[in-house]
Amino acid sequence: MFPDPLKILEAYRETIADGYGLRYSVYLSGCEHSCRGCHNPQSQDPQNGSLLTEERLRQMADDVNSNPLLDGITLSGGDPFFFPKSLFVLLKELKDRTNQNIWCYTGYTYEFLLANPDYSACLPYIDVLVDGPFVKEKLSPHLHFVGSSNQRILKLKNGAVVE
Q1: Under DSSP, is residue 9 helix (H, G, I), strand (E, B) or coil?
Q2: CA 144, CA 141: separation in Å to the nearest integer?
Q3: 95: which of 41, 60, 71, 127 is 20 to 30 A away, CA to CA?
């Protein structure tokens, strides 16, 4: 089902830390950014976590669909774009199976993603993209849903920034 093996470090059925509202959050493993001060360094190794299977994906979609209080799904990590072709499959399946608002965190910039076909193919399935690497020197506890002031929260529609 997935071109590359996606592994899940953790799935949180309800969280308010990963985007607006009550969200179902999935932390994927694999990241090449090596941001100094990363809050989730175990997520950098793509071998960490449990393999995302068709059965696990079905279970996640069932969990989301059975909770009427959820405001959406968040994908984080690691970097969900570590395996962009597999991310595309995951995003499409989650959107088709749940029709939920999807946030996605990445250390890449929107401009980088847009310029690369395997990455940009994912963007139409993402409603909110939080982009940019974590920069420890720009850390602020006063920011909402980002770790450093260089990161952006971008609303997307059909892969394009809106607002």
Answers
A1: strand
A2: 8
A3: 41
